[in-house]
């Protein structure tokens, strides 16, 4: 089965980010990671601790759907620097890809970890081919039948 899985990300906003620059501000942007590898990023917002990206982007994902489902989806918020390397300003530790229902957008609002303050509002939509979606639905139906059968045995 060929993989045609994509991840649509709506970078909405963040709040109370830590300052990283001498001016007491940051130039934040987000990096989206799947299995610890960067799949894409948002635009940067200059001199802001409460950025509003209001940006939607779609990224192609590599690997089979089954392997992708085992991967962690996370977001790292970084401070863009022109001269030196970019600074870490928080991380949303994320979820496993399998927790995203195929072809449905899910919003997450969460505190950033590894920093004192900060929160992010971001949405994800796992775009799958019809073939993959049918496979997921078939697996759900099979699981439901198993549960119903188990319940029936318990009450007989």
UniProtKB/TrEMBL annotation:
<dbReference type="InterPro" id="IPR035892">
    <property type="entry name" value="C2_domain_sf"/>
</dbReference>
<protein>
    <submittedName>
        <fullName>Tricalbin-1-related</fullName>
    </submittedName>
</protein>
<dbReference type="Pfam" id="PF00168">
    <property type="entry name" value="C2"/>
</dbReference>
<dbReference type="InterPro" id="IPR000008">
    <property type="entry name" value="C2_dom"/>
</dbReference>
<dbReference type="InterPro" id="IPR052455">
    <property type="entry name" value="Tricalbin_domain"/>
</dbReference>
<feature type="domain" description="C2">
    <location>
        <begin position="1"/>
        <end position="110"/>
    </location>
</feature>
């Amino acid at each position: 089965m060929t993989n045609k899985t994509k991840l649509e990300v709506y970078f909405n906003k963040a709040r109370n980010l830590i300052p990283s620059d001498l001016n007491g501000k940051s130039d934040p942007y987000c990096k989206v990671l799947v299995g610890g590898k960067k799949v894409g990023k948002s635009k940067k917002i200059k001199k802001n601790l409460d950025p509003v990206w209001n940006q939607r982007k779609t990224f192609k994902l590599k690997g089979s759907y089954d392997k992708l489902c085992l991967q962690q989806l996370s977001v790292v918020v970084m401070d863009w620097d022109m001269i030196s390397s970019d600074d870490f300003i928080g991380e949303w530790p994320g979820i496993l890809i399998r927790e995203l229902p195929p072809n449905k957008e899910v919003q997450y609002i969460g505190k950033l970890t590894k920093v004192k303050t900060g929160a992010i509002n971001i949405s994800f939509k796992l775009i799958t081919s019809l073939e993959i979606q049918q496979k997921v639905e078939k697996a759900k139906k099979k699981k439901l039948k198993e549960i119903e059968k188990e319940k029936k045995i318990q009450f007989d």
